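Quick one, tokens below:
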């Protein structure tokens, strides 16, 4: 395919759902995505939220047999809340269980209650994040490692489980759609996963910052240019929009109970139903298959090489997810083969 696609699974659930009851449904979605030719699976991470959340590395490990040769990524693993030695060993384990198909999606996190409960000051998260990425990479080399940073120290140690992939899984950075986020992702990662609410117009601007920073550092082009998008498909575009808005806005209301990831205005969709609708119309793909092809072709023309699609939020039913997957397989993917 000229453009590759991932599927972001729903691993945070409504308050009244017991996640154990959804495992078979997740497996069904994974097999459908695998059979459709989707390249990768992605799951998120949060702690101590109001929505029961299956932790990502464990879940991906459990789904690895259903996934076959699909890549397995985290979107995003909150790196400053974990010690980099533990993170390195966890992702090495996932790399072995998936036969070298792990992608380490690392983010800084943003929820104040998570950092407070872990005893990690919010003002330390950038420093911890950057040191952790550096130390994880050194450990994944398989060589004996010494490290002296402000937050982490190591003297002549070697990781116990060297990853299957030489040098370790690719590191894809999660960062906000603003200049500092773009530059941090360019400096630290093999790719940057741009958030789904980023409009095509804003995408042009922040990808410009990203490319410029990589050029400045002499890093060359990234391995992939990645953006997330929300997707509901139906032969009737208006029906797809109504289904998507209802489900996605239910999730936004839950996320709005916590502080926003940044104060740049990028998260206005958390402030009101009207703002959420405007964001959806500008950036999400709640539409018919033909219109989805047009929108995805436009992203490809902007230079994007990889789109991570989320097709389920909050109370959206399994049947709708499978319908979207089937329409995507039959009426969207053929345009990108």
């Amino acid at each position: 395919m000229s453009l590759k696609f991932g599927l972001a699974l729903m691993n945070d659930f409504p308050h009244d759902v017991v996640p154990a009851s959804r495992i078979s449904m997740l497996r069904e979605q994974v097999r459908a995505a695998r059979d459709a030719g989707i390249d990768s699976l992605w799951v998120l991470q949060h702690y101590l939220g109001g929505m029961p959340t299956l932790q990502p590395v464990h879940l991906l490990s459990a789904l690895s047999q259903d996934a076959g040769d699909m890549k397995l990524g985290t979107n995003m693993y909150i790196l400053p809340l974990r010690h980099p030695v533990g993170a390195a060993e966890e992702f090495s384990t996932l790399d072995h269980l998936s036969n070298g198909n792990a992608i380490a999606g690392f983010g800084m996190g943003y929820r104040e209650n998570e950092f407070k409960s872990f005893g990690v000051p919010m003002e330390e998260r950038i420093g911890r994040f950057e040191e952790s990425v550096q130390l994880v990479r050194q450990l994944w080399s398989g060589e004996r490692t010494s490290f002296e940073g402000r937050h982490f120290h190591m003297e002549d140690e070697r990781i116990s489980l060297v990853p299957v992939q030489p040098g370790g899984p690719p590191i894809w950075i999660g960062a906000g759609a603003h200049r500092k986020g773009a530059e941090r992702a360019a400096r630290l990662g093999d790719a940057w996963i741009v958030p789904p609410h980023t409009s095509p117009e804003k995408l042009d601007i922040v990808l410009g910052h990203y490319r410029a920073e990589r050029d400045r550092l002499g890093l060359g082009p990234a391995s992939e240019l990645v953006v997330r998008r929300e997707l509901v498909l139906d032969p009737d575009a208006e029906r797809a929009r109504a289904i998507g808005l209802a489900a996605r806005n239910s999730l936004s209301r839950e996320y709005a109970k916590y502080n926003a990831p940044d104060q740049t205005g990028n998260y206005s969709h958390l402030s009101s139903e009207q703002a959420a609708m405007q964001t959806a119309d500008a950036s999400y793909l709640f539409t018919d298959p033909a219109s989805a092809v047009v929108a995805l072709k436009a992203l490809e023309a902007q230079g994007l090489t990889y789109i991570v699609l989320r097709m389920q939020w909050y109370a959206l039913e399994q049947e709708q997810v499978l319908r979207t997957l089937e329409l995507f397989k039959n009426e969207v993917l053929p345009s990108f083969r």
